[in-house]
């Protein structure tokens, strides 16, 4: 490997992207959305600082990239999340000894944008869809999609968890069944997740019971 002083930002970005495409995967081998998110920030950094020696990418460079995020009319919270992803790339690079650790440490000195103190727009918090709107929508859905919506309302599952439910993942030993998704948002941290399924949820699932326990509903 070339010494850290000779590596460009482009080379760091390419090395990290190769890592991300291997690392951010679900148990079935498909990539998570993180890869797409990192591609967004990699494109922005490359356009401005691709040829810069990676050891020279400091707080001012990070602020310039962040200003580009603001100019793209991204909301403040999205700007902060994507700025953090740029930091994460250089943290990973420091761990791989592609850049001096001082590069990542310096980037940590750049604070996140604060509400009311930036030109980045604010967005209203995303709230739940009113029940009345859901009820008006259900008659227009196919039976399968309608059942998925009803199941999600009953259990609070994420959409991906509803799509991946299988008989093999459900413990039916008690009156209230327990669904343990084979994959969920925090699985990579070793966290478990259990979703109780009451009588109404059970009735919905019985309508679409597959013949094989490892098949999806």
Care to give the gist of this entry?
With 217 residues, the chain is mainly alpha-helical. 48% of the residues lie in helices and 4% in strands.
Describe the protein's architecture and organization.
The protein is mostly helical and 217 residues long. It has nine helices and three strands; from the N terminus they run H-H-H-H-H-H-H-H-E-E-E-H. A hairpin with a 5-residue loop joins strand 1 and strand 2. Helix 7 runs antiparallel to helix 9. The chain is elongated, with a radius of gyration of 23 Å.
List the main descriptive attributes of the protein structure presented here.
217 residues; mainly alpha; three-stranded antiparallel sheet; 9 helices; elongated
What secondary-structure arrangement, pairings included, does this model have?
Elements: H1 9-23, H2 34-49, H3 59-71, H4 76-95, H5 101-107, H6 131-137, H7 143-155, H8 159-163, E1 170-171, E2 177-179, E3 195-197, H9 199-206
Antiparallel strand pairs: 1-2, 2-3
Helix pairs in contact: 1-2, 1-4, 2-3, 2-4, 3-4, 4-5, 7-9
